[in-house]
Amino acid sequence: MIISKRFEDAIRKLYEAFHNNTINPECCKQCAVGNILDNTDSWKHLSDDHGSLELNYVGKVNQGFGRKFGGYTPVELLKIEAVFLDACGYELPFHHKNKKPDNPRDKEILFNGLSAVIAYLCQLEGISNIMDYSKLFDYENDQPTHELVF
User: Fold this and answer.
1) What's the number of CA atoms in the CB half-sphere (13 Å) around residue 109?
2) Across the strands, what pairs with 139?
3) Per-residue pLDDT at 140 exceeds 70
4) In the chain, % of residues over pLDDT 70
5) DSSP secondary structure letter of residue 72
6) Considering the chain, what is the average pLDDT of its residues?
7) In sequence order, what are the beta bridge partners of 140?
8) Is 130 buried (19+), middle (13-18) or exposed (0-12) by CB count in 10 A?
9) CA distance 73 to 21
10) C-alpha pair distances (Å), 109 with each of 45, 58, 134, 143, 144
11) Taking Cα atoms as reference points, which of 2, 5, 7 lies closest to residue 80?
């Protein structure tokens, strides 16, 4: 399977953030997109609300000019973040009055968020979800249809 540099870089950065405990859904530099963009928060100026899918003027201009950040368009970045926050249990857009998880730094919550992000990144790349192991349990005539390879 051939994968793009943006995908490989994003997966590596999210993996490192998860295992180094440097992912935080409530921080624009340490959320999913913040980590993909090397812990910068400049992407937050593409929208008026954290977790919103609506581009503001700056976002629309950048989208219109075909600008990419870390290989992703402004629309794609906002969707990545919305997918992450939603899967972590946040009501969107992010606001202190909206529903949020009791412990946003819980590893299981972060894993769920990152799994959803990875599924979305795979969709953007047009590849099968690399987190989907369900095919390992497919069978025909009591025999596995796929081999487990290490």
Assistant:
1) 18
2) 144
3) yes
4) 97
5) B
6) 92
7) 143
8) middle
9) 27
10) 26, 31, 21, 35, 32
11) 7
